[in-house]
Amino acid sequence: MQVYNTLSGRKEELVPQGDEVTMYVCGINPYSDAHIGHAMSYIFFDVVRRYLEYRGYRVRHVQNVTDIEDNIIATANRLGISVKELTEEYTERYFQDMEALNILPAHVYPRAMGEIDKILEMVRGLEEKGFAYAVEGNVYFRVRNVPDYGKLSHRSLESMMAGARIEAGEQKEHPMDFVLWKAAKPGEPSWDSPWGKGRPGWHIECSAMSLKYLGDTIDIHGGGQDLVFPHHENEIAQSESFTGKKPFVKYWLHNGLVQLGEEKMSKSLGNLITIREALERYSPDAIRIFALNSYYRRPLTYSEEVLEAAERGAERLRQAARTARSAATAAGPGPNSAEFRERFIQAMDDDFGTAQAIAVLFDLARQINRADEAGVDASDARNTLLELSSVLGLTLREADVPSTGAAPFIDLLVATRARLRQAGHYQLADELRDRLGELGIALEDTPQGTIWKQKR
Protein backbone atom coordinates (compact mmCIF):
# COMPACT_ATOMS: atom_id res chain seq x y z
CA MET A 1 0.00 0.00 0.00
CA GLN A 2 1.41 3.36 -1.09
CA VAL A 3 0.54 6.67 0.60
CA TYR A 4 1.63 10.20 -0.23
CA ASN A 5 3.64 11.60 2.67
CA THR A 6 3.63 15.40 2.88
CA LEU A 7 6.85 15.23 4.87
CA SER A 8 8.86 13.50 2.13
CA GLY A 9 6.84 14.91 -0.76
CA ARG A 10 6.41 11.50 -2.38
CA LYS A 11 4.53 8.24 -2.18
CA GLU A 12 5.88 5.71 0.31
CA GLU A 13 5.01 2.18 1.27
CA LEU A 14 2.83 2.13 4.36
CA VAL A 15 4.70 0.15 7.01
CA PRO A 16 3.10 0.62 10.46
CA GLN A 17 5.29 0.47 13.55
CA GLY A 18 3.40 -2.47 15.01
CA ASP A 19 0.27 -4.56 14.80
CA GLU A 20 -1.89 -1.49 15.36
CA VAL A 21 -1.97 1.57 13.09
CA THR A 22 -2.09 4.71 15.19
CA MET A 23 -3.91 7.64 13.57
CA TYR A 24 -4.49 11.17 14.84
CA VAL A 25 -6.80 13.51 12.93
CA CYS A 26 -7.17 17.18 13.81
CA GLY A 27 -10.71 17.85 15.00
CA ILE A 28 -13.12 20.75 15.23
CA ASN A 29 -13.24 24.09 17.02
CA PRO A 30 -16.86 23.84 18.22
CA TYR A 31 -18.27 27.34 18.06
CA SER A 32 -20.57 26.90 15.03
CA ASP A 33 -21.93 24.09 12.86
CA ALA A 34 -19.48 22.00 10.85
CA HIS A 35 -19.51 22.63 7.10
CA ILE A 36 -18.95 20.64 3.91
CA GLY A 37 -15.21 21.37 4.07
CA HIS A 38 -15.12 19.52 7.39
CA ALA A 39 -17.21 16.75 5.86
CA MET A 40 -14.70 16.21 3.05
CA SER A 41 -11.81 15.82 5.48
CA TYR A 42 -13.58 13.56 7.95
CA ILE A 43 -15.13 11.43 5.21
CA PHE A 44 -11.70 10.87 3.69
CA PHE A 45 -10.03 9.90 6.95
CA ASP A 46 -13.02 7.71 7.78
CA VAL A 47 -12.30 5.85 4.52
CA VAL A 48 -8.61 5.62 5.40
CA ARG A 49 -9.55 3.91 8.63
CA ARG A 50 -12.20 1.69 7.01
CA TYR A 51 -9.81 0.57 4.28
CA LEU A 52 -6.98 -0.19 6.70
CA GLU A 53 -9.37 -2.31 8.74
CA TYR A 54 -10.66 -3.96 5.56
CA ARG A 55 -7.06 -4.91 4.75
CA GLY A 56 -6.66 -6.55 8.15
CA TYR A 57 -5.04 -3.81 10.25
CA ARG A 58 -6.19 -2.82 13.71
CA VAL A 59 -6.52 0.95 13.93
CA ARG A 60 -6.35 3.23 16.95
CA HIS A 61 -8.05 6.48 15.92
CA VAL A 62 -7.84 9.64 18.04
CA GLN A 63 -9.47 12.95 17.12
CA ASN A 64 -9.29 15.99 19.34
CA VAL A 65 -11.89 18.61 20.17
CA THR A 66 -10.32 22.06 20.52
CA ASP A 67 -12.71 23.45 23.11
CA ILE A 68 -10.60 26.44 24.16
CA GLU A 69 -9.20 28.95 21.68
CA ASP A 70 -9.64 32.58 20.59
CA ASN A 71 -12.66 32.19 18.27
CA ILE A 72 -14.53 30.12 20.84
CA ILE A 73 -13.95 32.69 23.58
CA ALA A 74 -14.97 35.57 21.31
CA THR A 75 -18.16 33.78 20.20
CA ALA A 76 -19.15 32.82 23.75
CA ASN A 77 -18.62 36.41 24.93
CA ARG A 78 -20.66 37.77 22.02
CA LEU A 79 -23.54 35.39 22.80
CA GLY A 80 -23.31 35.99 26.54
CA ILE A 81 -22.84 32.32 27.41
CA SER A 82 -20.01 30.29 28.91
CA VAL A 83 -17.32 28.65 26.80
CA LYS A 84 -18.39 25.27 28.15
CA GLU A 85 -22.04 25.85 27.20
CA LEU A 86 -21.07 26.89 23.66
CA THR A 87 -18.63 24.05 23.04
CA GLU A 88 -20.89 21.37 24.52
CA GLU A 89 -23.72 22.38 22.19
CA TYR A 90 -21.67 22.42 19.01
CA THR A 91 -19.66 19.33 19.89
CA GLU A 92 -22.90 17.39 20.24
CA ARG A 93 -24.18 18.82 16.95
CA TYR A 94 -20.91 17.79 15.32
CA PHE A 95 -21.29 14.21 16.57
CA GLN A 96 -24.83 14.16 15.16
CA ASP A 97 -23.52 15.36 11.79
CA MET A 98 -20.83 12.66 11.73
CA GLU A 99 -23.36 9.95 12.56
CA ALA A 100 -25.64 11.19 9.79
CA LEU A 101 -22.74 10.94 7.32
CA ASN A 102 -21.98 7.37 8.50
CA ILE A 103 -18.56 8.35 9.79
CA LEU A 104 -17.15 5.90 12.33
CA PRO A 105 -16.55 7.52 15.73
CA ALA A 106 -12.94 7.87 16.82
CA HIS A 107 -11.84 5.60 19.64
CA VAL A 108 -10.97 8.65 21.77
CA TYR A 109 -12.14 12.27 21.53
CA PRO A 110 -9.90 14.13 23.99
CA ARG A 111 -10.87 17.72 24.74
CA ALA A 112 -8.25 20.38 25.32
CA MET A 113 -9.76 21.62 28.60
CA GLY A 114 -9.56 18.08 29.96
CA GLU A 115 -5.86 17.72 29.13
CA ILE A 116 -4.35 20.72 30.93
CA ASP A 117 -2.04 18.56 33.07
CA LYS A 118 -0.39 16.99 30.01
CA ILE A 119 -0.15 20.36 28.30
CA LEU A 120 1.57 21.90 31.34
CA GLU A 121 3.93 18.92 31.51
CA MET A 122 5.00 19.56 27.92
CA VAL A 123 5.41 23.32 28.33
CA ARG A 124 7.50 22.86 31.48
CA GLY A 125 9.61 20.22 29.76
CA LEU A 126 10.25 22.43 26.75
CA GLU A 127 11.25 25.31 29.01
CA GLU A 128 13.64 23.09 30.97
CA LYS A 129 15.28 21.87 27.74
CA GLY A 130 15.78 25.44 26.50
CA PHE A 131 13.15 25.27 23.76
CA ALA A 132 10.74 27.66 25.49
CA TYR A 133 10.93 30.93 27.42
CA ALA A 134 8.47 32.89 29.54
CA VAL A 135 7.66 36.60 29.24
CA GLU A 136 5.08 38.19 31.54
CA GLY A 137 3.01 35.01 31.90
CA ASN A 138 3.25 34.00 28.23
CA VAL A 139 5.45 31.09 27.18
CA TYR A 140 6.91 31.00 23.65
CA PHE A 141 8.67 28.29 21.65
CA ARG A 142 12.15 29.07 20.26
CA VAL A 143 12.08 28.06 16.61
CA ARG A 144 15.77 28.94 16.15
CA ASN A 145 16.66 26.00 18.42
CA VAL A 146 15.17 23.58 15.87
CA PRO A 147 17.54 23.29 12.86
CA ASP A 148 14.98 21.47 10.69
CA TYR A 149 12.04 23.76 11.45
CA GLY A 150 10.01 24.01 8.24
CA LYS A 151 10.62 20.45 7.05
CA LEU A 152 6.93 19.63 6.67
CA SER A 153 6.03 22.72 4.63
CA HIS A 154 9.40 22.55 2.85
CA ARG A 155 10.24 26.13 3.72
CA SER A 156 13.28 27.69 5.30
CA LEU A 157 13.06 29.94 8.34
CA GLU A 158 14.29 32.80 6.18
CA SER A 159 11.47 32.37 3.64
CA MET A 160 8.90 32.23 6.44
CA MET A 161 10.11 35.58 7.73
CA ALA A 162 8.54 37.45 4.79
CA GLY A 163 5.06 37.33 6.28
CA ALA A 164 6.03 37.15 9.94
CA ARG A 165 5.18 39.90 12.38
CA ILE A 166 5.01 40.41 16.11
CA GLU A 167 1.55 41.25 17.43
CA ALA A 168 1.04 44.18 19.76
CA GLY A 169 1.85 43.19 23.32
CA GLU A 170 4.04 40.24 22.34
CA GLN A 171 7.67 40.12 23.45
CA LYS A 172 9.12 37.37 21.28
CA GLU A 173 12.80 36.75 20.80
CA HIS A 174 12.12 35.94 17.13
CA PRO A 175 9.08 36.80 14.96
CA MET A 176 8.46 33.11 14.13
CA ASP A 177 8.35 32.00 17.77
CA PHE A 178 4.87 30.78 18.68
CA VAL A 179 2.91 30.76 21.91
CA LEU A 180 2.65 27.63 24.06
CA TRP A 181 0.88 29.19 27.03
CA LYS A 182 -1.10 32.44 27.09
CA ALA A 183 -1.35 34.70 30.13
CA ALA A 184 -4.91 35.05 31.40
CA LYS A 185 -7.08 37.94 30.25
CA PRO A 186 -10.25 39.19 31.97
CA GLY A 187 -13.31 37.15 31.07
CA GLU A 188 -11.38 34.14 29.75
CA PRO A 189 -11.14 30.63 31.22
CA SER A 190 -7.77 30.11 32.87
CA TRP A 191 -5.76 27.58 34.87
CA ASP A 192 -2.96 27.83 37.40
CA SER A 193 0.55 27.34 36.01
CA PRO A 194 4.19 28.02 37.00
CA TRP A 195 3.91 31.27 34.98
CA GLY A 196 0.65 32.42 36.52
CA LYS A 197 -2.93 31.91 35.45
CA GLY A 198 -3.37 31.28 31.76
CA ARG A 199 -4.56 28.91 29.04
CA PRO A 200 -2.89 26.74 26.38
CA GLY A 201 -1.96 27.88 22.90
CA TRP A 202 -3.57 26.10 19.97
CA HIS A 203 -0.58 24.11 18.71
CA ILE A 204 0.47 22.57 22.03
CA GLU A 205 -2.99 21.08 22.57
CA CYS A 206 -2.72 18.60 19.68
CA SER A 207 0.81 17.54 20.57
CA ALA A 208 -0.17 16.85 24.17
CA MET A 209 -3.22 14.79 23.20
CA SER A 210 -1.38 12.82 20.51
CA LEU A 211 1.51 11.96 22.81
CA LYS A 212 -0.80 11.03 25.69
CA TYR A 213 -3.14 8.74 23.77
CA LEU A 214 -0.94 7.37 20.98
CA GLY A 215 2.66 7.60 22.18
CA ASP A 216 5.78 9.50 21.12
CA THR A 217 5.65 8.37 17.49
CA ILE A 218 2.46 7.71 15.54
CA ASP A 219 1.85 6.22 12.12
CA ILE A 220 -0.59 8.65 10.49
CA HIS A 221 -1.42 12.27 11.24
CA GLY A 222 -4.21 13.76 9.14
CA GLY A 223 -5.84 17.08 8.44
CA GLY A 224 -6.54 19.66 5.76
CA GLN A 225 -3.78 21.24 3.71
CA ASP A 226 -4.44 24.56 5.45
CA LEU A 227 -3.00 23.00 8.63
CA VAL A 228 0.42 22.13 7.18
CA PHE A 229 1.75 25.53 8.25
CA PRO A 230 1.83 26.70 10.91
CA HIS A 231 -0.17 24.18 12.94
CA HIS A 232 1.38 20.87 11.92
CA GLU A 233 4.82 22.40 11.46
CA ASN A 234 4.67 23.64 15.04
CA GLU A 235 3.36 20.31 16.28
CA ILE A 236 6.45 18.60 14.89
CA ALA A 237 8.84 21.16 16.39
CA GLN A 238 7.43 21.07 19.91
CA SER A 239 6.74 17.31 19.99
CA GLU A 240 10.16 16.20 18.76
CA SER A 241 11.90 18.75 20.98
CA PHE A 242 9.99 17.42 23.99
CA THR A 243 10.64 13.71 23.28
CA GLY A 244 14.32 14.10 22.47
CA LYS A 245 14.04 14.16 18.66
CA LYS A 246 11.96 11.00 18.36
CA PRO A 247 10.08 11.18 15.03
CA PHE A 248 6.63 12.54 15.80
CA VAL A 249 4.78 11.13 12.76
CA LYS A 250 5.74 8.61 10.06
CA TYR A 251 3.13 9.59 7.45
CA TRP A 252 1.53 13.00 7.12
CA LEU A 253 -1.68 12.92 5.04
CA HIS A 254 -3.38 16.15 4.01
CA ASN A 255 -6.62 16.52 2.09
CA GLY A 256 -7.39 19.35 -0.32
CA LEU A 257 -9.93 22.00 0.59
CA VAL A 258 -13.51 22.52 -0.53
CA GLN A 259 -14.03 25.74 -2.45
CA LEU A 260 -17.00 27.95 -3.21
CA GLY A 261 -15.88 29.67 -6.39
CA GLU A 262 -12.22 30.65 -6.05
CA GLU A 263 -12.02 30.69 -2.25
CA LYS A 264 -11.76 27.88 0.26
CA MET A 265 -14.83 27.20 2.36
CA SER A 266 -14.20 28.34 5.94
CA LYS A 267 -15.89 29.68 9.05
CA SER A 268 -13.68 32.77 9.10
CA LEU A 269 -14.64 33.75 5.54
CA GLY A 270 -18.31 32.97 6.15
CA ASN A 271 -18.70 31.30 2.76
CA LEU A 272 -19.89 27.91 3.78
CA ILE A 273 -22.57 25.30 3.40
CA THR A 274 -23.13 23.48 6.66
CA ILE A 275 -23.38 19.71 6.76
CA ARG A 276 -26.94 20.08 8.05
CA GLU A 277 -27.93 22.26 5.11
CA ALA A 278 -26.44 19.77 2.67
CA LEU A 279 -28.21 16.84 4.33
CA GLU A 280 -31.56 18.59 3.91
CA ARG A 281 -31.09 18.29 0.16
CA TYR A 282 -28.85 15.31 -0.47
CA SER A 283 -28.42 11.83 0.93
CA PRO A 284 -25.32 10.91 2.96
CA ASP A 285 -24.26 8.58 0.16
CA ALA A 286 -24.37 11.45 -2.35
CA ILE A 287 -22.27 13.69 -0.10
CA ARG A 288 -19.73 10.90 0.37
CA ILE A 289 -19.54 10.30 -3.39
CA PHE A 290 -19.05 14.05 -3.90
CA ALA A 291 -16.17 14.05 -1.41
CA LEU A 292 -14.53 10.85 -2.70
CA ASN A 293 -14.99 11.14 -6.45
CA SER A 294 -11.68 12.94 -6.99
CA TYR A 295 -8.11 12.66 -5.72
CA TYR A 296 -8.18 13.62 -2.05
CA ARG A 297 -5.20 15.99 -2.23
CA ARG A 298 -6.82 18.20 -4.88
CA PRO A 299 -9.22 21.09 -4.12
CA LEU A 300 -12.90 20.25 -4.52
CA THR A 301 -15.41 22.80 -5.80
CA TYR A 302 -18.88 22.70 -4.31
CA SER A 303 -21.79 23.14 -6.72
CA GLU A 304 -25.39 22.03 -6.90
CA GLU A 305 -24.72 20.38 -10.26
CA VAL A 306 -21.96 18.19 -8.87
CA LEU A 307 -24.08 17.16 -5.88
CA GLU A 308 -27.04 16.40 -8.14
CA ALA A 309 -24.77 14.16 -10.24
CA ALA A 310 -23.52 12.45 -7.09
CA GLU A 311 -27.10 11.80 -6.00
CA ARG A 312 -27.92 10.25 -9.36
CA GLY A 313 -24.81 8.09 -9.05
CA ALA A 314 -25.82 6.98 -5.58
CA GLU A 315 -29.24 5.97 -6.90
CA ARG A 316 -27.64 3.90 -9.69
CA LEU A 317 -25.72 1.95 -7.06
CA ARG A 318 -28.85 1.52 -4.93
CA GLN A 319 -30.76 0.32 -7.98
CA ALA A 320 -28.17 -2.36 -8.69
CA ALA A 321 -28.18 -3.50 -5.06
CA ARG A 322 -31.96 -3.50 -5.07
CA THR A 323 -32.63 -5.46 -8.26
CA ALA A 324 -29.88 -8.11 -8.32
CA ARG A 325 -31.49 -11.52 -8.79
CA SER A 326 -30.91 -14.20 -6.18
CA ALA A 327 -32.07 -17.03 -8.41
CA ALA A 328 -31.17 -17.69 -12.02
CA THR A 329 -33.90 -17.88 -14.64
CA ALA A 330 -31.39 -18.23 -17.48
CA ALA A 331 -28.12 -20.03 -18.01
CA GLY A 332 -24.81 -18.23 -17.74
CA PRO A 333 -22.35 -16.99 -15.10
CA GLY A 334 -22.90 -13.83 -13.11
CA PRO A 335 -20.34 -10.99 -12.91
CA ASN A 336 -16.86 -11.99 -11.74
CA SER A 337 -16.80 -10.55 -8.21
CA ALA A 338 -13.13 -11.42 -7.64
CA GLU A 339 -12.09 -9.28 -10.61
CA PHE A 340 -13.92 -6.21 -9.28
CA ARG A 341 -12.59 -6.75 -5.77
CA GLU A 342 -9.05 -6.94 -7.13
CA ARG A 343 -9.49 -3.73 -9.12
CA PHE A 344 -10.94 -1.97 -6.07
CA ILE A 345 -7.99 -2.98 -3.88
CA GLN A 346 -5.52 -1.97 -6.57
CA ALA A 347 -7.10 1.50 -6.71
CA MET A 348 -7.17 1.96 -2.94
CA ASP A 349 -3.65 0.64 -2.47
CA ASP A 350 -2.41 3.49 -4.66
CA ASP A 351 -2.69 6.34 -2.13
CA PHE A 352 -6.38 5.74 -1.41
CA GLY A 353 -7.58 6.18 -4.99
CA THR A 354 -11.22 6.62 -4.07
CA ALA A 355 -12.25 8.05 -7.45
CA GLN A 356 -10.99 4.92 -9.21
CA ALA A 357 -12.59 2.75 -6.52
CA ILE A 358 -15.97 4.43 -7.11
CA ALA A 359 -15.54 3.82 -10.84
CA VAL A 360 -15.15 0.11 -10.03
CA LEU A 361 -18.45 0.21 -8.12
CA PHE A 362 -20.26 1.74 -11.09
CA ASP A 363 -18.73 -0.84 -13.44
CA LEU A 364 -19.90 -3.60 -11.10
CA ALA A 365 -23.37 -2.05 -10.90
CA ARG A 366 -23.64 -2.06 -14.70
CA GLN A 367 -22.68 -5.71 -14.81
CA ILE A 368 -25.28 -6.51 -12.16
CA ASN A 369 -27.98 -4.73 -14.16
CA ARG A 370 -27.02 -6.59 -17.32
CA ALA A 371 -27.10 -9.89 -15.49
CA ASP A 372 -30.48 -9.04 -14.02
CA GLU A 373 -31.89 -8.18 -17.44
CA ALA A 374 -30.60 -11.52 -18.75
CA GLY A 375 -32.12 -13.41 -15.83
CA VAL A 376 -28.70 -14.49 -14.50
CA ASP A 377 -28.03 -14.91 -10.78
CA ALA A 378 -26.22 -11.76 -9.60
CA SER A 379 -26.53 -12.27 -5.84
CA ASP A 380 -22.78 -12.79 -5.34
CA ALA A 381 -22.02 -9.62 -7.28
CA ARG A 382 -24.61 -7.75 -5.22
CA ASN A 383 -22.92 -8.88 -2.01
CA THR A 384 -19.59 -7.73 -3.40
CA LEU A 385 -21.10 -4.35 -4.30
CA LEU A 386 -22.37 -3.93 -0.75
CA GLU A 387 -19.04 -5.11 0.69
CA LEU A 388 -16.92 -2.67 -1.34
CA SER A 389 -19.40 0.17 -0.92
CA SER A 390 -19.19 -0.21 2.85
CA VAL A 391 -15.40 0.29 2.67
CA LEU A 392 -16.18 3.76 1.29
CA GLY A 393 -18.85 4.26 3.95
CA LEU A 394 -21.74 4.03 1.48
CA THR A 395 -24.84 2.39 2.89
CA LEU A 396 -26.97 2.21 -0.28
CA ARG A 397 -29.96 2.30 2.05
CA GLU A 398 -33.39 2.81 0.59
CA ALA A 399 -34.16 5.35 3.29
CA ASP A 400 -31.66 7.78 1.80
CA VAL A 401 -34.11 8.86 -0.95
CA PRO A 402 -37.82 8.41 -1.66
CA SER A 403 -38.66 5.00 -3.03
CA THR A 404 -38.73 4.62 -6.79
CA GLY A 405 -42.42 3.80 -6.49
CA ALA A 406 -43.15 7.23 -4.99
CA ALA A 407 -40.91 9.18 -7.34
CA PRO A 408 -43.30 9.23 -10.37
CA PHE A 409 -46.13 10.57 -8.20
CA ILE A 410 -43.90 13.28 -6.78
CA ASP A 411 -42.81 14.19 -10.31
CA LEU A 412 -46.49 14.42 -11.29
CA LEU A 413 -47.26 16.74 -8.35
CA VAL A 414 -44.25 18.91 -9.16
CA ALA A 415 -45.41 19.18 -12.79
CA THR A 416 -48.95 20.02 -11.63
CA ARG A 417 -47.58 22.77 -9.41
CA ALA A 418 -45.63 24.18 -12.35
CA ARG A 419 -48.83 24.34 -14.46
CA LEU A 420 -50.67 26.04 -11.61
CA ARG A 421 -47.94 28.67 -11.40
CA GLN A 422 -48.04 29.21 -15.16
CA ALA A 423 -51.80 29.73 -14.94
CA GLY A 424 -51.38 32.27 -12.15
CA HIS A 425 -52.85 30.05 -9.41
CA TYR A 426 -50.04 30.86 -7.00
CA GLN A 427 -51.99 30.18 -3.81
CA LEU A 428 -52.83 26.64 -4.92
CA ALA A 429 -49.23 26.11 -6.07
CA ASP A 430 -47.96 27.26 -2.67
CA GLU A 431 -50.42 25.00 -0.86
CA LEU A 432 -49.17 22.05 -2.92
CA ARG A 433 -45.57 22.95 -2.10
CA ASP A 434 -46.38 23.25 1.60
CA ARG A 435 -48.22 19.93 1.63
CA LEU A 436 -45.26 18.21 0.00
CA GLY A 437 -43.04 19.84 2.63
CA GLU A 438 -45.18 18.34 5.38
CA LEU A 439 -44.66 14.95 3.73
CA GLY A 440 -40.89 15.42 3.79
CA ILE A 441 -40.35 16.63 0.21
CA ALA A 442 -38.49 19.92 -0.32
CA LEU A 443 -38.87 21.83 -3.60
CA GLU A 444 -36.37 24.26 -5.12
CA ASP A 445 -37.22 26.39 -8.15
CA THR A 446 -34.21 26.82 -10.46
CA PRO A 447 -33.77 28.33 -13.95
CA GLN A 448 -33.74 24.75 -15.26
CA GLY A 449 -36.97 23.81 -13.49
CA THR A 450 -38.06 22.59 -10.07
CA ILE A 451 -35.87 20.11 -8.17
CA TRP A 452 -37.28 18.01 -5.35
CA LYS A 453 -35.41 16.28 -2.53
CA GLN A 454 -36.42 14.29 0.49
CA LYS A 455 -35.79 16.18 3.72
CA ARG A 456 -33.66 14.45 6.35
Question: Can you walk me through this structure?
Answer:
This protein has 456 residues and is of the alpha/beta class. Helix content is 44%, strand content 15%. The protein contains 15 helices and 15 strands. The strands form 5 sheets. A 4-stranded parallel beta sheet has the order 4-3-9-10, with helices on both faces. Helix 14 runs antiparallel to helix 15. Mean pLDDT is 91; it is low at 399-404.
Q: What amount of the residues lies in strands?
A: 15-25%
Q: What is the number of beta strands? A: 15
Averaged pLDDT: 91
CATH secondary-structure class of the largest domain: Alpha Beta
Question: How many domains in all?
Answer: 3
Q: Uncertain runs with pLDDT below 50, 5 residues or more?
A: 399-404
Radius of gyration: 25 Å
Q: Structural class of the helices, strands and pairings?
A: alpha/beta
Question: In which range does the helix fraction lie?
Answer: 40-55%
Given the structure, what is the number of helices?
15
The outline comes out as: globular
Short description:
The chain is α/β, with parallel strands linked by helices. The protein is built from 15 helices and 15 strands.
Task: Name the descriptors.
Rossmann fold, Four Helix Bundle (Hemerythrin (Met), subunit A), alpha/beta, 4-stranded parallel sheet, 456 residues, 4-stranded antiparallel sheet, 3 domains
Question: What layout of secondary structure does this protein have?
Answer:
Elements: E1 2-5, E2 10-13, E3 20-25, H1 36-54, E4 58-63, H2 70-79, H3 83-100, H4 116-128, E5 132-135, E6 138-141, H5 157-160, E7 178-183, E8 198-200, H6 202-214, E9 218-224, H7 228-242, E10 249-255, E11 258-260, E12 263-264, H8 275-279, H9 284-292, E13 300-301, H10 304-323, H11 337-349, H12 354-373, H13 379-391, H14 407-422, H15 426-438, E14 441-446, E15 449-454
Parallel strand pairs: 3-4, 3-9, 9-10, 11-13
Antiparallel strand pairs: 1-2, 5-6, 6-7, 7-8, 11-12, 14-15
